[in-house]
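Feature request, filed as a ticket because there's no other form

It would be nice if the structure record came with a short human-readable summary line next to the tokens. Right now we just get the raw output. Example of a typical job, pasted below so the devs can see what we mean:
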Amino acid sequence: MGIDLHKETHTAVMLDCWNRKLGEITFENKPSEFSKLTRKVSRFVTEEKNAVYGLENAYGDVLPSAVNPRQDITIL
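Raw output as currently delivered:
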């Protein structure tokens, strides 16, 4: 999943391993809104499929901490 970070909103695009688009979500840049992303991503995660996050211009660690509180997914 690629996440393009902006001052007011973030946009995430979910792709499979064949580069097919699975989904897209835009959400406000507020910690209270980050759960929208994790809920959407959880629909695609299975025992065989893990979430890998790629964050563009990741200033700070608020969003990475929110999507990965247990430190069990990969953030590039």
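Something like this underneath would help us a lot:
The chain has two helices and five strands.
The two ends are 10 Å apart (CA to CA).
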